[in-house]
Amino acid sequence: MLFDSHTHLDAEQFDHDRELVIKRACLNGISYMLNPGADLSSSVKAVELAEAHDFIFAAVGVHPHDADQLDTEMLSMIEHLAKKSVVKAIGEIGLDYYRNLSPKDVQIYWFREQLRLAKRLNLPVIIHDRDANDDVLRILKEEKSFETGVLMHCYSGSRELAEQYVKLGAMISLAGPVTYKNARKSVEVAEVVPISHLMIETDAPYLTPEPNRGKRNEPMYVRSTCERLATIKGISFEEMAAVTMANAKRFFKII
Ligand code: NI
User: Fold this and answer.
1) Distance 27 CA to ligand 1 centre (A)
2) Which pLDDT belongs to residue 102?
3) pLDDT digit string (tens) for 119-147?
4) Ligand 1 centroid to residue 36 C-alpha, Å
5) pLDDT of residue 99
């Protein structure tokens, strides 16, 4: 019984076999999945998928890559979507200074606006942070986002930063890279984050865990990440699955 807390089932890579992928996930013990949005159209698709399957939930939001497409009208459409009962978070939102596909100041402006939206609706946030550690942490603190819940998705920062996030009450979600041979940094993070603050995800169709690295990623492969984390933590697979399931349900307020 696993919870894939971040999977892009709406992605075009699944256009030819989406329902089969979902069925395979169910047959392999993935009992819940959360599909975050990356722009308005993927947020709409995420909500549609969640409304069609009672074990899929959605998050809505605009990724920093597409921040320059955002305007007040689009934000109000995101807000309208966010009020639906299948929507459990605002995301994925954040800052990406690695690819800088939208200008920095534009990314920051709409990151703040979406954090404020989440606070207004009392929803947690799913954060994408790439090479923007200092600004992301500072802005999350300034916007008091830790009060309503912060999930650091596909966490790739340092062990020290992970410890700071845990102190602030945030959840740390690890993906396929923790299974890679050169994953020293992710392994260190997994070692220091208490299991009460750990979540697992695929980020499918990207970042496929070993031993399927190289193939398209899909929710059923979250099992490999769970196995790796159980080994690092020295607990059974079943216990790691149960704890990450309970953490995700608590974070997304799923009863
Ligand atoms: Ni993602």
Assistant:
1) 23
2) 86
3) 999 999 999 999 999 999 999 999 999 99
4) 7
5) 85
Measured in angstroms, how far is the CA atom of residue 155 from the centroid of ligand 1?
A: 11
The pocket of ion ligand 1, defined by CB under 5 A, consists of 203
Mind listing the pLDDT tens digit for each residue in 4-26?
Answer: 999 999 999 999 999 999 999 99
Write the burial class of residue 54 (CB in 10 Å: 0-12 exposed, 13-18 middle, 19+ buried): exposed
Predicted pLDDT of residue 171: 98
Which residue would you say has higher pLDDT here, 102 or 247?
A: 247
Distance between CA 116 and CA 4 in Å, rounded? Answer: 26
Tokens 């409304």, residue located: 51
User: What's the 98 CA to ligand 1 centre distance in angstroms?
Assistant: 15
Domains and CATH numbers, the chain: 2-251 (3.20.20.140)
CA–CA dist 239, 87 (Å, integer)? 27
Ligand 1 centroid to residue 83 C-alpha, Å: 21
101 pLDDT above the threshold of 90: no
Distance between Cα 38 and ligand 1 center (Å): 7
Give the residue-averaged pLDDT of 207-214: 95
CA of 37 to the centre of ligand 1 (A): 8
CA–centroid distance, 141 to ligand 1, in Å, is 22
Please tell me the distance between residue 14's alpha carbon and the centre of ligand 1 in angstroms.
Answer: 15
Task: List alpha helices for the chain, DSSP H.
Answer: 18-27, 40-52, 72-82, 104-121, 133-142, 159-167, 184-192, 222-233, 237-251
